[in-house]
User: What shape does this take?
Amino acid sequence: MADITETLKERGEFNECRRIGENIQTAMEYQTNFKTLSIQKKMYLALLANEAGRIINGDPECSNVYNEMMVICRCNGLTL
Assistant: This one.
């Protein structure tokens, strides 16, 4: 059970992470250029917003979150 406890500690409290991610997504949706993006790019941005919520609310030193963000970017043809 210690493994799941550590994982939850790294990721932060779910409802707070969700709230932060949703707020970031809402802010993006109000931008003019957001409407011009493909569905795929919007999905990648939503995934990145959720990962940002994990960083802000969880352990900002957890390398797993940054690795997941790099995977999301590489799937979209971007590099960090």
